[in-house]
Amino acid sequence: MNIIPCSIKTLKGLYDISGVEVGQHFYWQIGGSVVIAVRNPQTIPTDGQNFFEYVLEFIRDLSKTQIGEEYGPWVPFIGTMFLFIFVSNWSGALLPWKIIDGIFLCWS
């Protein structure tokens, strides 16, 4: 196990060491895929439109069953929290964060 000295110079290089860039570009890709999937809505949905309709209906139904009939204003908040937790859990399980040895020893 490596002990990394704490400095700003050291911390700048840790983000690129795994080869995975997580940040603003990732969210732009998700938003872009939503726009591409639902840009031409049809009565009989295509694959992308069907997937995003399923996700939105799931979040709406989840909000309705937990909050009740006054669920409308809470749907964006619950949807954001649900997708944030879902993506965070999957990114922790799928991305190779173990490559960065010693990153958690830099506390002081």
From TrEMBL:
Transmembrane domains' residue ranges? 74-95
Annotated signal peptide: none
GO cellular component, alphabetical, reads: proton-transporting ATP synthase complex
Highest taxon above the source species: Eukaryota
Record bears the keyword Transcription regulation: no
| Nucleus as UniProt keyword | no
One GO MF term on file is: proton transmembrane transporter activity
Give UniProt keywords alphabetically.
Answer: Membrane, Transmembrane, Transmembrane helix
GO biological process terms, alphabetically, are: proton motive force-driven ATP synthesis
Q: What is this protein called?
A: ATP synthase subunit a, chloroplastic
